[in-house]
Design a protein that fits this description.
alpha/beta, 2 domains, five-stranded parallel β-sheet, three-stranded parallel β-sheet, 15 helices
């Protein structure tokens, strides 16, 4: 299934599967819809006669109406325990985010032996409304644009000593290549559910550092998102403390009866207006200098805080399990019918 254009996490699907299992994922006329990397298990999935799920997760919008059960569904694994519990799947269906398989790609193993500096990877939407390039320059931190080519983003993450991540897949890639990372939060649209879903698969916490908006339009958009859907998002403290069942209940209250995903929280016309206003604000350099300095200071403070990295044992176990599930998928999906 195609991901969000310009979001490197979703675009991993464009080449990773053909790289790891070319015979299984070769183009064909098979109408099966493959659901791999991404927060894409929702009621808004395109209609298909059959779905194959390998590591996808819930996190935006109501879950599939039939909860991924029935003759149309073949579930080899979902991203984590929260998705498995919410969909009421067998416990052995929980695995980890399949982007961990990047560690098995030979061309990505030879990372730079000299890692340098701190990198910040915002969520792809934050690039549309914020002044994060200017903030990072002021903070002395390297900005990695998540809308670049996926392999380019991966290489830049590999070369960092520390990654500050609003983008979940930036944290996943960092952890995969054993680069410490720190989660941060800018927008209520970033799903605490999806982060906790993945983090639990590696016995990691999710307690993001809240960063201020870097622009007036970014701040305005956050207020409008909460106005349109007051239930959207969780404060970082609540996201870290809720037990799995309470987090699932909170998620369903926010999404169970709403056919909009958080990415559609604002009406389309609202997004167009805000993007145009954002271009205007980018020209008012003097009006944004104080805000940028405040954000730069917040980013530096975040970088000095505690970082995360899964244990070598947890990482090896999750990688081994994901590889075993992929081998099972290849055997089953390549078998003659």
């Amino acid at each position: 299934m195609p991901g969000v254009k310009g979001n490197f996490g979703d675009e991993l699907n464009d080449w990773l599967w053909n790289r790891l299992a070319p015979e299984t994922f070769a183009e064909s006329s098979d109408p099966t819809l493959f659901l791999g990397i991404g927060t894409i298990l929702s009621a808004n999935l395109p209609a298909a006669p059959r779905y194959v799920v390998f590591g996808s997760g819930v996190g935006y919008g109501p879950p599939p109406i039939d909860r991924c059960r029935g003759d149309r569904w073949q579930v080899y694994g979902v991203r984590g325990e929260l998705t498995q519990r919410l969909l009421d799947l067998p416990t052995d269906r929980a695995m980890s985010d399949p982007a961990i398989l990047l560690a098995a790609c030979p061309e990505l193993r030879n990372a730079s032996s000299t890692r340098r500096g701190i990198a910040f990877v915002p969520h792809w939407k934050s690039m549309n409304y914020g002044f994060w390039n200017a903030v990072c320059q002021a903070a002395g931190i390297r900005l990695i644009d998540p809308c670049q080519d996926a392999k380019q983003v991966i290489r830049q993450i590999q070369d960092a000593e520390l990654v500050i991540a609003e983008s979940m897949h930036a944290a996943i890639v960092a952890d995969t290549f054993r680069v410490p990372w720190i989660p941060v939060l800018l927008s209520p649209e970033v799903s605490a559910f999806k982060w906790r879903d993945w983090a639990s698969s590696l016995a990691l916490p999710y307690a993001p550092v809240q960063l201020p908006a870097s622009s007036f339009i970014e701040a305005t958009r956050t207020h409008l998102v909460r106005y349109v859907n007051p239930e959207i998002g969780l404060e970082p403290e609540r996201a870290a403390l809720l037990d799995p069942e309470a987090l699932i209940e909170s998620y369903l209250r926010s999404n169970g009866n709403d056919d909009r995903t958080p990415g559609q929280g604002l009406a389309r016309w609202g997004e167009i207006v805000l993007k145009r206003l954002s271009r205007v604000e980018r020209g008012l350099r003097l009006s944004r200098s104080v805000r940028i300095e405040q954000c730069a200071a917040s980013l530096r403070r975040a970088a000095s805080g505690p970082s995360h990295l899964s244990t070598d044992r947890s990482h090896a176990d999750a990688l081994s399990l994901t590889q075993e599930r992929l081998a099972r998928l290849c055997r089953a999906e390549s078998a003659p019918t």
